[in-house]
Amino acid sequence: MAITGTQNPSQVHRIPQSKYIDGVRWLPPVSAFDRFAAIAYFDADSNSPSIEIHYLNTNPQDPSPVLDPQSSWTSPSRISSLKTAQSTPQPLLAAATFSGSLHVLAPDLINGGAIESKASIEDTGFHSGPVAAVDLRDGGNECVTVGDDGRINLVSFSGNSWYRRFFDANGLVGYSAVKWASPTEFVTGGYGFGLQWWDQRRPGGPVSQFKGNWTQGKTSGIVHSIDIHPSRKHTCLAGGSSGTVFAWDLRAQQQPIVLSGAGTGEAAAPSLSESDVWEVQYDRFTRSSNISNMSSARILPVMICSEDGILAVIEQGEEPIELLAEPCAINSFDIDHQNPSDVICSLEWESIAILTSSRSSSTRLSRGSVQLPRFNKVGNALKLSSTQAISGFSSLVSQKLFSSTPPPQRLQSLTVFAAKGYKMKTHKASAKRFRVTGRGKIVRRRAGKQHLLAKKNTKRKLRLSKMHPVSRSDYDNVIGALPYLKVNRKAK
């Protein structure tokens, strides 16, 4: 991993919530100064799911934003997928549920955010079981839903709402993700890292299909999220199990471009995360490090969130940029289309994180290319044998990066990443992540398993309960954050 030093660091605002968060989405603004977000909640005490519209209240005198609730809509079942449409006359929300229903909502952001139900499909034959994913077509009055039952439904809500069964695999194939590519085309994903390209003008089956056999049976997985860039509709981005992020180019249909995770041979790529990647989106704000030579075959920067609490930006052939590392899972995130530097995330431990950053000034430095200066106040916190690289922000990045410029007199504190990807931030955060065994060995706890969604199976719960030993080269760093630990350095 890398050491990240910043002079203008990203601002991360964590807002605790009283209920579990199933999904978050930015809503299209009605004015230049108003910011709204739709949040899907689940109250475990009363077993009541809901969707609330919140206004992001930013006070110039207080740097911490506040989410003010505007309106609420009670769902008949827990929300399994939440999507918004951008290019529409009024904001639209599509909410799919675990009971197999679909609800299209239209919040009135001008008049207090009142939520109006535009369409509701609750037929027993709509889906057999939960709706795994839904996507709204931008600028249109149609959405597509998929499920583990193998059904693909197209729902129209212009005038009277109705739906039609576009395809039914009769349970032989299940789908877990879907994304519109054009007004008539969409992409689905499912088990085995498989992707299917569909065209409404050619019903009966997918017009193109990608089978994830590039792992050569060494790993099996499932696609959790799909994204397609509006300027590159021939390339489909997917994220799934085992930290896998890859792109499928229709011009080379059986040769994936692996950005992270599973792969063999030329398809192999270093893995930023070893757990499930729950969501992927093209990062429209981060500028490519090789933008002058950017070709249509090169994958644009991608933002991901994972089960082990990582929010990062990945670019083909470059070192990843880690934006956030939490002690719990990051289940979903959304990039504001009007202000792409702002990101909202839902955390496993009933909290919302909002990143307001100057990520355009960040860059990547090759491993070992820059050495850290000596800081008097940092001490042993930087003495990590596993540290090999740093990535800085605007103070370190300029056209004369390697010129002999004297360092600034006032340096901000650094966030240090150790060999296994954990970091020392505060005593409280460190105490949640590290423990000492009876023999005096330091072990770390992975992301918590509280309120796991239905799609997170028992095997994953057991894996999250295990403790992992900390590398001895990082003992000084852990003890520096938790000096009260009774550690036996000679323990085996």
Walk me through what this model shows.
This protein is mainly beta and 492 residues long. It has 2 domains: 10-288 and 298-357, YVTN repeat-like/Quinoprotein amine dehydrogenase (Methylamine Dehydrogenase, Chain H, 7 Propeller); 428-481, Factor Xa Inhibitor (Irregular). Helices cover 4% and strands 41% of the residues. It is built from 3 helices and 35 strands. It has helices at 427-433, 458-465, 475-481; strands at residues 3-4, 11-16, 20-27, 36-43, 48-59, 62-74, 79-85, 92-97, 102-108, 114-121, 131-136, 142-147, 151-156, 162-168, 175-180, 185-190, 195-199, 208-210, 223-229, 232-240, 245-249, 257-260, 277-282, 302-306, 310-314, 321-325, 330-335, 342-347, 351-356, 390-391, 416-417, 423-424, 434-436, 442-445, 467-469. The strands form 10 sheets. A 4-stranded antiparallel beta sheet has the order 2-29-28-27, with no helix packed on it. A hairpin with a 3-residue loop joins strand 28 (342-347) and strand 29. The longest helix is centred in the C-terminal third of the chain and has 8 residues, at 458-465. The two termini are 26 Å apart. Residues 69-80 have a biased composition (Polar residues). It is found in: Nucleus. Residues 58-80 are annotated as: Disordered. It comes from Corchorus capsularis. Keywords: Nucleus, Repeat, Ribonucleoprotein, Ribosomal protein, WD repeat.
